[in-house]
Each structure stands twice: as C-alpha cells, then as structure tokens.
Automatic annotation (TrEMBL):
Residues 12-220 form the Transposase IS4-like domain. Pfam families: DDE_Tnp_1 (PF01609). It comes from Methanosarcina lacustris Z-7289. The lineage of its organism: Archaea, Methanobacteriati, Methanobacteriota, Stenosarchaea group, Methanomicrobia. InterPro entries: RNaseH-like_sf, Transposase_11. This is Transposase IS4-like domain-containing protein. One of its GO terms (biological process) is DNA transposition. One of its GO terms (molecular function) is transposase activity.
C-alpha cells in the first residue's frame, strides 16, 4: 500500500454501504438494515469503509463489518476506531470527509484532537449560535452564499454553507476551516463521492454481494 498512498497528504473518506443478501439463510453478519439503494430495510451485511484518495486514485485502507449484536460497536465506534488506526499508521490527511451520520460532536472533537480538518453535513435541527446571543436550529439561520462562521453547540466555531439544489433539496455543509470558500467546499464534495464509486465498484465488478461464504472468518476475508 505504501507504494500507492501518500501518508502526508490526500483525503480520508468514511462511509457505509449495505451488501444485499436477500436470500441469505444462516449467514454470518446478515441482518435487516436500511439500504440507500432500495430506500427501505433489506437483509444484508453492513460495511463501514475508510478509503484514501488524492482526488483521482482511490485506495481502501480499512473496513469494519457492522455486527453490533456480537461486538457492541456502533457505526460511529467503527468510525473512530478506523481514524485512530489511520493515525497510528502515519496518515496525516488534508481533510477527513464523511456524511451526516458521523457528524456527532464526539466525532468532530476526535478529529480536532488529531489536528485534522473535516468537511461533513449537518442535520437542519443542529443547534448553532450565529450572533453570540443564543442557540437556534441551523435551518433558521440566514447563511450567505459565501458561508457563515457560527458556534456549533458543544463543539466550537465552524463555518457552515447552505446549498439548495434545483429541486429544492437543501444541504448544510460544515467545516472546521473557517476561511474555506465555496469553490474549495465544492471541490471537496466532489472528492467525497469517490467512496460511492468504490462501493459501487466492489459490487458491480468484484461481486462482493455474490460471496456465498457463511462463516464469519470467510466473510471477513473473501469477496
């Protein structure tokens, strides 16, 4: 891996994906869980992945199987474990990129403690203080196109951006880099989609969902 990854630059991206196992019987790790692909709960294996990218090349560097009934670990636990392991291995990314699910105060503080930068999304009901008066829901704050520095409750100062798509869908992006501009945010968002490409690739071209292994040891090593 060292021949392909630059530990001192690039970007770390975390996301999870459901490996569909609709006909599985007595197969390790299979449980009912939400599938973004099907927009409903399905039988499958929950995969939490950490990849490194320079914006072009995508290299998987760690993964965890969601198996909370056996190891008591949530997806957020796996998120923190993988970032700790990445730091132990010598990674010092330019940014850590991840989705709303992992944007808890605990996770954001863990990244700050490593002196790393992050970009993620926040739910509309997250409490922020935009004017040093009081905390209010993020959705009620007037955010200019260039973004706005606010105080995120229980965390500290961050910069937020509101992006409204043509169909009216609204997203709120947040970073601990307070001087980030919109062009940088947009560039990082494009990079963050690399993990979607990776998950799609292992399903379409590697046949990971077709693996018929039933034992835990086999599911963890075969694809």
């Amino acid at each position: 891996m060292k021949n392909y990854v630059n530990l001192k630059c690039g970007f770390l991206i975390v996301d999870d994906s459901t490996l569909d196992k609709p006909y599985a019987k007595k197969m390790a790790f299979v449980r009912r869980m939400w599938s973004g692909k099907h927009h409903r709960t399905v039988k499958g294996i929950g995969l939490v992945t950490l990849v490194w990218t320079d914006g072009t090349t995508v290299i998987p560097i760690d993964f965890r199987i969601y198996n909370i009934d056996e190891d008591d670990k949530t997806k957020n636990d796996h998120f923190l474990d993988m970032l700790d392991k990445a730091e132990e291995r010598g990674f010092n990314p330019e940014f850590v990129l991840f989705d709303t699910w992992y944007a808890s105060v605990k996770n954001l503080k863990a990244i700050r403690k490593k002196e790393w930068h992050f970009l993620t999304r926040l739910k509309i009901n997250r409490s922020v203080n935009p004017d040093n008066k009081k905390n209010v829901p993020l959705e009620t704050v007037d955010i200019p196109p260039k973004g706005l520095v606010v105080h995120l409750k229980a965390y500290g100062f961050v910069k937020v951006f509101r992006i409204v798509s043509k169909d009216g869908d609204t997203q709120h992006w947040v970073t601990n880099v307070q001087d980030m501009d919109e062009s940088k945010r947009e560039d990082l968002v494009k990079k963050s989609w690399k993990i979607e490409e990776y998950h799609r690739g292992i399903k379409q071209f590697c046949g990971v969902e077709k693996c018929q292994a039933r034992k835990e040891e086999s599911q963890s090593t075969e694809g």
